[in-house]
Amino acid sequence: MKESCSFKLEHYKYCLESAKRKGYKFLTLEEYIQNKSKVVRKEKIILMRHDIDHKLSLAMNFAEIEKSLGIQTTYFIRLHADYNPYRLENYKVIKNLTEMDHEVGLHYDAGFARLFNENAEQFFKRDGVIFENIINKKISGISCHEPNNSKNEFTISDKNIAKFGLKYQAYSPIFVKDMKYISDSSARWREGCMCNFIEKETPKLYITTHPIWWHKKSPLENY
Known about the structure:
Layout: H1 9-21, E1 25-27, H2 29-35, E2 45-52, H3 59-69, E3 74-77, H4 88-99, E4 103-108, H5 120-135, E5 141-144, E6 168-169, H6 173-176, E7 180-183, H7 194-199, E8 204-209
Parallel strand pairs: 1-2, 2-3, 2-8, 3-4, 4-5, 5-6, 7-8
Helix pairs in contact: 1-3
């Protein structure tokens, strides 16, 4: 029986359970990049991505559900958010995510350097070094924060990504065009909830969520 769509965490779990029942294979973005040529075309794939815009602690709501189902996903973490990744409770979250074998990448702010008249490329490289020191690991990919508002800023694209030693950027055509891409931006699925695409068994799904919108009983829990 299909459950009513909502931004409750129980519905998120329902969506994952439904996908597993229908035979979907969950991959991190890094795994997809590494194995794209080996992925069977008839195989149903879901790439689940989480952009942590606010409150890193909310990532664990998703991570615990995914752990219970044996699923690994990709989390992008900001350095310039209102959370400090080095703060004890936040650092614990990062450690937990990596220990659960989730992929962790950098959710970078394209226009931040311009606010201080700094060189954007050098600023991005510096952020990358800082972030890799935090997670004590080389990152494979990055995701731009609010890409629609960053079109006139310095951004990482498929054209310049190699110079930064990265394997992918999250808005590459291999994700957003070769697969069906949906996002819960501003707590709104513009083409309908992800459960609808799972129910229809859309072959290749690329799904972006923002934990700030998802709750147990009320959105007020996250503010």
